[in-house]
Amino acid sequence: MFKMRYAETGYNLEIDLSNGNIERVETDPILTELHIGGNGKAAKMIWDRVPPEADAFSPDNLLIFSAGLLVGTPLPACNRTMVDTISPQTNFFSHSIFGGYFGPELKHAGYDQIVFRGKSPRLVYLWINNDKVEIRDASHLKGKGAQETAELIKRELNDPRIQVAAIGLAGENRLFMASIEHSNASASRGVGAVMGDKRLKAIAVRGTKDFAVASPEEFFELCLRHSQEIAASPFNGDLMAIEWNDAFHHDNFAWGNSRVRRKNYWSQELEDRWKDYTLEIRDRLQGCYNCPKNCHLVVKPPGRQRYMLKCFGKGTWHMAAFEELPFTFDILALAQEYGVDSYAAPQTIAFAIELYEDGILTDKELPDFPASGADRFYYLLEKLVRREGIGDVLANGVYAAARLIGKGAEKYDHNTIKKFEQIPLKLGRVNFPYFLMYCTSDKMAINQSEGSYPQDAIKDPVERQKFADEWISAPERFRRFFMEWEPRTDPSPEASINICDWNETMHYVDDSVGTCAFCSSFRGQFGGGAAYHIYNIPHFINLATGMNMDADDLWQVARRNRNLVRAINVSRGLRRVDEKPPENHWSKREPEKEQALLSEYYTFKGWTDDGIPSKATLDKLGLDYVADELIRRGILNGTEDNCYIHHPCYSDVNKKEATISVRKGEHFTLTEYNIVNK
Fold it and tell me: What pTM was computed for the model?
């Protein structure tokens, strides 16, 4: 008997690139109840269909594009597309996200996910026009930039409204740091390399279909009000794109290959000069689909194409090269066309420069190497994206390149975790919640783990109490932890473990629903005023889908998805020995406390002391089939009875209702917030 599907289309596209087969496949609604959507459903597919023996460049590896459950509905700032696969850099689950317009267009074309398997014998692109789906020749797009590719496809298909996700030369040449570029957003962390390996140049989508929500009138009215509140809220959106004062990053992040802190670098003169330059080349600010926040900076540097700045590429390139902002805007025009990740690529290039300066790389490997930092970056970027000479080694990322080069290069690899480059930070004393997030995250980047809990305590007890009283997104225990937290002290082990768990849980929620982290999981740390949180997201889900879900139910879905991703990585060899930050990430370490805390965290999660989800945990989460497979492979013995510790979101005394309003604030900047609360 047919049952109406709400909020989702109920159909996936299955594309076998090896033989050109295209299938429209109806999906099981039970999977929505268990995993919501996005990376949850993608993880289930990868667990079921990609054996641990298959590497990233195997035809058996899947590349999955998923629109979040509520993407394409009227829910404001809900537009995220998740891209999931197995990473060539780590051999673990690779998860990436991008915003923009692609996910909503895919939903309106009639699909929740696109699942690619196999490898095309030639370069191709996929064209989705509602029910018409074609694999088309892309030989004429070979070597073209990502933005150029999108424009050429729109012209070829004679429709400027088409949404395109494409790779550049970096993806075609399978650079491990290759990105997938789309309009004002991009997906990184290995997914571009897999797209290139499958010889898939681009995906073009045009959708004009409707899909239904369960309670349209109430849902729309609520979304309209919420959109207006998000627009007025200073706590939501990516402030990095629109704030002029960036002292926080420039004075605290590390420069070069994550080795040099330039304290007090920022000045008013520098800020004014960079502001003037930005306004000179700025075209406009732009937002993603159905979002009231204009977080994306559109620029046209002298002699370069017009493009949209993505994430913190605004700072990572010049901080790696010891250059200034005009250099960043210029090299980003190249880097985004080539399709390279703005965290990994600058560090990899800076790593090569350090090796040259210390005599490990020579003129033999770097013939005609320029004398200046900026010219060296352009030189190495070209070598990198073409895999020419030393670029063929660097294309595998810092960890692998250091070991291929040898001659002591390994000691210059000091900013990778699980073989992946991290955000460039070198700090003072170890921070225990962040130690756990860095160690245990299966998402390979701290900005995909942190965010719900503030980074610093509030000194004034009155202000601290006021903050806690107005902190509508926090379960009660976190208010207690925050009230007990004094400046320049560590949160307790109990607090540290819970903070890590809450932070990662909210990202797994966003990555299944499709809500933007800058209005949800990432923004709670600065001011505590995120528009989406564990209490109001279920209400939106229920109105859109007809489900009956509360905060505890949603937390359980996120926990299920988290453990499923963990099981994928464990089946591929992940163990406790891999869960460590770089040795010099913090200058002062406490190894005994760190390891004791890691053991407590594993116990809290219901994992073994080697970081493997126990049979009891997996069974309780409805992942008994995962436990059976881990037992069959000898990874679990089947007698593990430690189970995760469940803390209800709701207080028995004061049951929270689904508060929809957004925390108010008259004035807020990221820099001022950090200065006040240091």
Answer: 0.96
